[in-house]
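FAQ

Q: What does a record look like?
A: Structure on top, sequence underneath. For example:
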């Protein structure tokens, strides 16, 4: 059974940093797309950062240059380093895994964590 567990969220000030982690269990980590999504109150969920089975990454424009997605395949853990945080980054952040290796921004994500809250104050 695949399980994804996020951690590392919390309060932050504008300009601050947070590092999110996503521990995975029960999957062949590294073979499929992994991603971070976020959802703010009253807004649709959006994909923030993606990493494919070759390690190629892709970001939504609003976080380019500030967020970095990475992974430790030995630990089966996904990360999201968030720097220069802004109030508009406030959202619940979710880790997700697809059952496809590429085209990660467009595939359907099959497995989801419960999320971790990030709140950025101005």
């Amino acid at each position: 059974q695949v399980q994804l567990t996020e951690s590392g969220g919390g309060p932050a000030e504008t300009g601050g940093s947070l590092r999110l982690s996503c521990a995975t269990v029960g999957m062949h980590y590294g073979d499929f797309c992994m991603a971070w999504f976020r959802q703010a109150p009253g807004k649709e969920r959006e994909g923030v950062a993606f990493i494919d089975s070759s390690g190629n990454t892709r970001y939504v424009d609003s976080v380019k240059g500030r967020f970095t997605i990475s992974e430790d395949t030995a630990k089966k853990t996904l990360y999201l380093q968030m720097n220069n945080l802004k109030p508009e980054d406030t959202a619940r952040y979710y880790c997700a895994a697809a059952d496809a290796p590429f085209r990660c921004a467009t595939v359907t994500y099959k497995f989801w964590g419960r999320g971790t809250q990030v709140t950025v104050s101005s």
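Q: Is there anything notable about this one?
A: The chain has no helices and eleven strands.
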